[in-house]
Structure formats: structure tokens, C-alpha cells
Design a protein that fits this description.
Blueprint: E1 5-9, H1 25-36, E2 41-45, H2 46-49, H3 53-61, E3 67-71, H4 77-90, E4 95-99, H5 101-106, E5 119-121, H6 126-134, H7 138-141, E6 147-151, E7 154-157, E8 192-195, E9 198-199, H8 210-214, E10 219-220, H9 223-237, E11 241-244, H10 253-265, E12 271-276, H11 283-291, E13 294-302, H12 306-311, H13 318-331, E14 334-341, H14 348-360, E15 365-370, H15 378-385, E16 401-404, E17 407-411, H16 423-438, H17 441-449, H18 454-467
Parallel strand pairs: 1-2, 1-3, 3-4, 4-5, 8-11, 11-12, 12-13, 13-14, 14-15
Antiparallel strand pairs: 5-6, 6-7, 9-10, 16-17
Helix pairs in contact: 1-6, 3-4, 9-10, 10-11, 11-13, 14-16
Length: 468
């Protein structure tokens, strides 16, 4: 049976499968909305399915879809164009759309590289894609939020209008993906589910491009709607472990209390984790979260020196990393720390202090990556001004990329190649950081005492193999 639309999350490397990755919620939201509106859809996540360029293209065209929709990060854009070319070779009638965070940052730029792509979309595209599917003429196209399209020799770029009431969107349909293939380093049970409870971010971190897709204003789903999704997935898919993908989950404490109350009032026995900032937790809040099933918080700590944090416009203090992890340990919540090496103004001795901080604050997990100048970020423009990028459109070139647990840990093309702190040295320090953090007797004993099952042993060994 043919599909009206095939949604694809393209590979970062052809022919590989990621052992630790999560359902791609952005594309899944759009596919779910299209399905709810009556379209026949298929979803392909190439990160877990693998496949060569030819195999993936054939799996798409065999569906004989009217539309093929790619959702891409910068590290996926080149492979999406290769697939688009293959698809058009096999069936010129298929309309190809590319959206995702990369398009939100670069807008119409991709059109200069290809004639195989019919439309680009940026921003929130659930409603917009369905309108595109049903568009009959250019007048219809001109009214679609976030659509970028060719009109004769011109390129039209429509304004993006954020979705005001997030509760109106259907829950991402997990039946569209192979749920059993997703995994994470630290989940307590499988299968897992991911949730996006907010959109937008008002913070001004120099390295982040999230604002381009979701805007600067926080929008929250209601606690009832969020826990309805949890209960729905628990009953229909057996997911007891939930990962909130919001970058700053605790930005509104009363809202978090509301979610925890909903979970407790319904008697849901679940485990969940989230991300937030070290400046946005308190002992009382953490205790409430723990009582409602929170077992892990991931913090974007980024750097171990205050002057580097200030240059990143992070809005946090080094001592808050100590305070936040201590409060989490007291509450019985595990912690993950994310760190970056190679930021503007950072010297090697600063990076060594970052590694030292990661070991000092008693984290359960840590991830270290070189700083990447993603398009449309403040760091990107700094890199161009200071001649730290070999090519301003580095993402359109083949890059040596290594993915570790959903984190890009080795990518030279978009890194800041500074004379005083070369990329190769940054990568060496990331590898040094991983080894020094994980291969410590104190850390190994700590992990052994936290092992709950054979699956935990297998997962930890797989993770260790990827990291070191």
C-alpha cells in the first residue's frame, strides 16, 4: 500500500546503526499530525535502521509517496541531499521537503546546492506540512507558515508563526517507530519514550541554535496534557521510562510541581529524567521530583572556569555546578554533566580545569565534546570574524564525524580551529576527559554498586566501548 508521505530522519553516516539514540520527536510530531488528519504515513529513522544510500532511497520510493519529508540537523544535511538525488532519479514525481534545525538557521541557502528539493520548512511544521500537502496553487503556498519555495526565478520565504496552544497537538505516535531499537546509557527500563513538554528558549547561550526553530518565548504544555501522554504511552506501549527532552525543564517551578502532582495523584509508577540548568534547582523541588519518579537530571555545565562561562553567556556560575550536584545526590537523583572544549577565549589550562571540575562534583555520567560553530549562532559569527572556520558552509562538506550516545564528539569541519588551541588538541582533550572521568577506581566501584540487572551490565559495557 502506498503512503501519502514518508518521513525520514536521515543517517549521519550511511551503513551504520546507532546503539544509543532516542526517537526524533520533531519529525515524529509532524508525521503524527499528518496521520491524525487522515494521511497514510511511514516513518523511517535511519539512525537505528541503518542502510546504504541506495537501500534507504529504495525503501522510500517503494512506498510511492506523494511527499518525502526530511528532518535534518547540520550533520545530516549532506546525506539528505544525496538521498534526495537518488529519490528523484527513481521517481521525479515525488515532492521533497527538508526541514529541521538546520533549515531554521540557514533558511533558503540549501536551494543553491540542489534542484532536487521542492520545499524547505522552518519552525514548527505540524500544521504547515498538512497545509502544504493539500496546497493547490501558489496562493495556497503563500499562506503556509515557515514555508520556503521557488516562484519562477524568485525564492519566497513565508513568516513562521509559532503554535500558541501546544495542548492541541496530538501525542507523538510511537507506533510509527521501532520503539524496541532505542536505548540510552542510563535508563532504568526499556522500552523508553521521549517527551517534549515545552518549546522556546529565552536564554542567549552563544553556542545554541534552538531559538531559531522554537523562538525565544517559553511555551508550556499543561501538566495534565503531559501526564496524559505519559499514561497513554504506559498503557499502549509499556514505556515505564520517560526522557524529557526540554533543554530547561525546571524553568517554571510551579509548573514542575504541577506535573509531579499529576503523576502522584494518578498513582503512576514510572521513572523519568530531564535536562536543566545548574541555577534552576532547589532541595524542595528535587525532593518533589524524586518522589514523582525522577531519577536523573542532565546539566549543561559546559565549562569549569567562570570567564569562559561568561563569554558563552551561559548565565551560570561554576559554584552552582557543585551546589546542584550536591543537592541531587542528597535527593537521590543521579546526574549527567555536559561539557564543551574549545570555546572562544578558552585556553588549554581552562579545559583542564573543566575536566577537573567534572571529576570533582561527583557526577554519575559526563559527556565531553568539542565546540561546534553551528550556523546562525553567535559562536558561528565569531568564528567567521576570527578566521576559525575553514569554510563558512562547513556542513556542506564531508566531515569525519563520530557519534557517541547522541553526542557529536569528533567533528572537525565546524570546530573552532584556533591557532592558540588547535582542533586536534581539543579532540585529544575530549578523549582524555572521557578516559579520566570513567576509568577511575572510585567511579568504577560507584557504578558497580548501582548495577541493578544483567541489562545494566551489558549497557554499561557497550557505553564504555563507545566512549573509550
Amino acid at each position: 500500500m502506498a503512503s501519502d508521505a514518508v518521513f525520514i530522519y536521515p543517517p549521519i553516516k550511511f551503513g551504520t546503526k546507532e546503539g544509543f539514540t532516542l526517537p526524533p520527536l520533531g519529525a515524529l510530531y509532524i508525521a503524527t499530525y499528518a496521520k491524525k488528519m487522515g494521511l497514510s504515513v511511514k516513518f523511517i529513522d535511519s539512525l537505528i535502521e541503518g542502510g546504504s544510500e541506495e537501500e534507504i532511497a529504495t525503501s522510500i520510493t517503494s512506498e510511492n509517496p506523494k511527499f518525502v519529508c526530511f528532518s535534518v540537523m547540520s550533520c545530516q544535511v549532506l546525506n539528505s541531499l544525496k538521498l534526495a538525488s537518488k529519490i528523484k532519479e527513481q521517481n521525479k514525481e515525488i515532492k521533497i521537503v527538508i526541514g529541521g534545525s538546520h533549515i531554521a538557521s540557514t533558511k533558503e541557502e540549501l536551494f543553491k546546492y540542489t534542484n532536487d528539493v521542492d520545499y524547505l520548512m522552518y519552525g514548527e511544521a505540524e500544521i504547515a506540512f498538512y497545509e502544504l500537502y493539500n496546497a493547490k496553487n501558489e496562493e495556497d503556498l503563500s499562506k503556509i507558515s515557515g514555508l520556503i519555495y521557488r516562484s519562477g526565478d524568485d525564492i519566497k520565504l513565508n513568516q513562521n508563526i509559532p503554535i500558541a496552544n501546544l495542548d492541541e497537538l496530538p501525542f507523538p505516535d510511537l507506533s510509527l517507530v521501532n520503539l524496541d531499537k532505542y536505548n540510552s546509557y542510563y535508563v532504568k527500563s526499556l522500552p523508553l519514550a521521549t517527551i517534549m513538554a515545552t518549546r522556546g528558549c529565552p536564554f542567549r547561550c552563544t553556542f545554541c541554535d534552538q531559538f531559531a526553530t522554537m523562538g525565544r518565548e517559553f511555551r508550556h504544555r499543561t501538566p495534565k496534557n503531559i501526564v496524559d501522554e505519559i499514561e497513554h504511552n504506559l498503557k499502549n506501549f509499556g514505556t515505564k521510562d520517560f526522557i524529557f527532552k526540554d533543554s530547561t525543564f525546571t524553568n517554571n517551578k510551579n509548573w514542575v510541581y504541577g506535573i509531579c502532582k499529576e503523576i502522584k495523584d494518578r498513582g503512576l509508577k514510572i521513572n523519568w529524567s530531564c535536562n536543566t540548568r545548574v541555577s534552576m534547582v532547589s532541595e524542595e523541588l528535587l525532593k518533589t521530583m524524586k518522589d514523582a519518579g525522577c531519577y536523573m537530571i542532565a546539566f549543561g555545565i559546559e565549562a569549569g572556569t567562570q570567564h569562559v562561562l561568561n563569554l558563552m553567556k551561559k548565565g551560570t556560575r561554576v559554584e552552582q555546578a557543585h551546589e546542584a550536584t550536591k543537592m541531587c545526590n542528597k535527593a537521590g537523583i543521579e546526574t549527567t554533566g555536559y561539557f564543551m572544549i574549545g570555546n572562544p577565549g578558552e585556553k588549554e589550562e581552562d579545559a583542564l580545569k573543566t575536566i577537573k571540575l567534572a571529576k570533582e562534583i561527583d557526577l554519575d555520567y559526563a559527556a565531553f565534546g568539542v565546540t561546534i560553530a553551528y550556523p546562525n549562532t553567535e559562536i558561528y559569527y565569531w568564528a567567521l570574524e576570527n578566521n576559525c572556520l575553514g569554510d563558512k558552509e562547513w556542513y556542506m562538506k564531508e566531515n569525519d564525524i563520530n557519534i557517541t550516545g547522541n553526542t557529536i564528539s569528533d567533528i572537525k569541519g565546524g570546530a573552532l580551529n584556533r591557532e592558540d588551541f588547535p582542533v586536534d588538541r581539543q579532540i585529544q582533550l575530549c578523549k582524555k576527559a572521557n578516559k579520566e572521568f570513567y576509568i577511575r577506581p572510585s567511579y568504577i566501584f560507584k557504578r558497580i554498586f548501582k548495577i541493578r540487572s544483567f541489562n545494566d551490565v551489558a549497557r554499561n559495557l557497550r557505553a564504555l566501548a563507545e566512549i573509550v
